[in-house]
Amino acid sequence: MRLKDVIVGAAMTGAGIAYLRMAGNLPEREGVDAATVPGMLAWMMIALGLIEMVGAWRRQPSPTARTGREGIVTVMLTLLLIAGFIAALRPLGFPLATALYLFLQFLVLTPRETRPPVPLYAGLAVASAAVIFMTFRFGFDLLLPAGPLVAWLN
Amino acid sequence: MFDLLIQGFAAVLSPQIFALMVAGTVVGIIFGAVPGLTAVMAIALCLPMTYGLGPAAGISLLIALFVGATSGGLISAILLKIPGTPSSIATTFEGGPMMEKGEGAKALGVGIVFSFLGTIASIAALAFIAPSLARIALTFGPHEYFAIAVFSLTLIATLSSGSMAKGIFAGVLGFAVSTVGIAPVDATTRFTFGQVELNAGFSILTVLVGMFAVAEIIKVAETSRSQIAGTAPMIVKIKGFGFTMAEFLGQIPNATRSALIGIGIGILPGIGAGTSNIIAYIAAKKRSKTPEKFGTGTIEGIVAPETANNAGIGAAMIPLLTLGIPGDAVTAIMLGGLMIHGIQPGPMLFITQAPLVYTIFAALIVSAFLMLVLEFWGLRIFIKLLAIPKHILLPVILVLCAVGAFGLASRIFDIWTILAFGVLGFAFVKAGIPTAPFIIGFILGPMAETSFRRGLQLSRGDYTGFLTNPISGVFLVLAVLSILWQLYGEYRMSRRPDADNPLKLGGEE
């Protein structure tokens, strides 16, 4: 039995059941309506999930690379940083939010055996944020949020 | 036809479009060469930049990116033994050993020249096959379009992954995601949860950027801390193209066969250069007089995958332009790019917008020449770019992705969407579910549903209409056969050890 594939199969089935329930809440009309295709897709998802589960049950377990604790922490920190970056775009503005995000993300992703060159990262973060903002704001007329710097940048 | 082609060249060779194409080819080559960056990402990132351009300039830029990125993969495949893109996997088999033998320059020269020839061969196929196919496709109705969409979905699902169930599930889930928003035919609002932003459904761009670019960044985050800091690439000296005329002429049969494989596979919706380069490599080995030399660094093994993967470019454009069906993830985003510029691919495109079609042909030819020249002269710079650590490069790319998403409608909501799809894409990677079928399902879903419902209206609710109509019947039978073929293949593979199966690449692309 390959436990990972059994879990994946269960998740596929679960997604199908959730989608079927949502499709069931759509307003019904006569004949083929807006819920028909989602209903079909949901049953297909459930069937495929069950096929995957049964197949995984019969498959031999194989050694798979496991994500270390450090990897999970880095992924979680990266997701938090990206979410924080998006949330900060309006209040802080694009240049500040970007420079801050890039600096922190460089630090988080730096390989363990490398000592992070903090001043270089800070310079790169500020320069990248400035170049991207200027290119899109003035090169492509894209009104990226400027935040507190609006008086100087627009 | 030739008048239209001349008009196309006149448009493409105007200073503004030519400059854009030079830039696009360079960016494409860089994205192809840097492992983790793909043609899809290059096109997705540059798509917002084309908003302000006209259709000819915008599409020419996207084509330059496509050609450059497909070919650029050979640089890291040879220099670092890492395929820059899935289309260069087989190039590493011979490119790496040639590099180790001190023949890296020769390997690069061979790869560049035969990539160029593969592209030119596929453009010829596109120019001659596409108009005829478009004329046939003009007679298609909802039944035919539905059957073709189903056939495409089964091909994608069965050929892009190790597990058929996971591949088909990815396609079905993509289709399900495409049902968010206002339904076709009766305009019922579906799965929006009261969010006005979802009334129009998810944008192609946000889904693509999320699933490919953001997911890649999260993937890199997982291993970046434990990776050893980047190693400096070897210095490569190159004189001419690095090979003799006799060697070139000796590879013509191999190149011809590989181009035909690339075109044949590329023309089928759902199977891209990621598959054709390996099949061409295996075919070259089987037909070689010295198969025992494969794996030790032979130019035959560079010629085959590089000709085949680039031959897929023009070929993949055939179903895209004539039927509006994307062959792979790259052409899926190209379809998005065309639609953003108000171009609806399909048989009518050749009648209503013939000059634009020939502009596309001209852009492909010019891009092929630009790729040849720029790759040859830019090699030293590309080697230096490969040295930029991923932990610096990828966060900057994420910011560019956010800008691209924001540029769609100036909404922060779209940036949240790319993060959500990024997490989904990462979950796909961890679960061994291929991403390409999801994208194709998302793209083809609305067409399949609309055609299905209209087809049923035409046949007054009779489902057998899809089978009794000859063309749709044939495609639906082909769809069933492709699934049965895959089932048979899976059964055969399950009886063999993994080491005997060079094409089994796992669930990930």
UniProtKB/TrEMBL annotation, chain B:
User: What residue intervals traverse the membrane?
Assistant: 59-80, 107-133, 145-162, 168-186, 198-218, 259-284, 320-344, 356-379, 391-409, 415-445, 466-488
Q: Where is the DUF112 domain?
A: 19-440
For this UniProt record, the keywords arranged alphabetically read as follows: Membrane, Plasmid, Transmembrane, Transmembrane helix
Q: Out of the domains of life, which is the source?
A: Bacteria
Which PANTHER family does its entry note? TRICARBOXYLIC TRANSPORT PROTEIN
What is the protein's given name?
A: Tat pathway signal protein
Q: Where does this protein come from, organism-wise?
A: Paracoccus liaowanqingii
